[in-house]
């Protein structure tokens, strides 16, 4: 995860990829978003997007594996906040990650839709050193 010289690193967190750690991640992400000047609505949107992405990492990237990790890094650059989420699971083809059709009413499957709706940019990047997955989400501070 590259950091520009004028980026302010707000959070670096490495945690086991387990559902019981999501509360800790949400709290740390919310605090970082507040610290950089995001308003209440923007803080909630960043927290929702990160929570959804982390749930996807736990459920889909790692699946039944219990030894996975998630690295969360949040940076401020000017009037934007950038969130990088890295896992070390098998690399996934980003072209296969698509939200479910909104007309298909049933539980689950809307995380990627929510992430795209609340963030200004959501992109899957090549992970450093070629292993795992790297998701970058950007939001304008408001």
How many helices? 3
User: Would you tell me the overall average pLDDT?
Assistant: 88
Question: What is CATH's topology name?
Answer: Heat Shock Protein 90
Class in CATH?
A: Alpha Beta
Low-pLDDT windows of residues: none
Q: What structural class is derived from the secondary structure elements? A: alpha+beta
Percent of residues in beta strands? Answer: 25-35%
CATH architecture: 2-Layer Sandwich
The H-level CATH homologous superfamily, spelled out, is: Histidine kinase-like ATPase, C-terminal domain
Overall number of domains:
1
The largest sheet, given as strand count, sense and whether it forms a barrel, is:
5 strands, antiparallel
Q: What portion of residues is helical?
A: 25-40%
Distance between the termini: 24 Å
The overall strand count is 5
Order of helices and strands: EHHEEHEE
Looking at the structure, what is the overall shape? Answer: globular
- Strand order, biggest sheet? 1-2-3-5-4
> What's the alpha carbon Rg, rounded to whole Å?
14 Å
């Amino acid at each position: 995860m590259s950091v520009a010289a004028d980026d302010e690193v707000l959070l670096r967190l490495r945690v086991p990829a387990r559902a019981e750690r999501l509360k800790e991640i949400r709290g740390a992400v919310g605090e970082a978003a507040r610290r950089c000047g995001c308003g209440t609505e923007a803080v909630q949107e960043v927290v929702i997007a990160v929570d959804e992405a982390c749930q996807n990492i736990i459920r889909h990237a790692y699946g039944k594996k219990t030894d996975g990790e998630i690295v969360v890094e949040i940076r401020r650059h000017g009037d934007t906040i950038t969130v990088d989420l890295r896992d070390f699971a098998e690399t996934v083809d980003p072209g296969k990650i698509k939200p479910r059709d909104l007309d298909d009413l049933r539980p689950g499957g809307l995380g990627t839709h929510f992430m795209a709706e609340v963030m200004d940019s959501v992109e899957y990047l090549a992970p450093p050193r070629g292993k795992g997955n790297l998701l970058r989400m950007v939001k304008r501070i408001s």
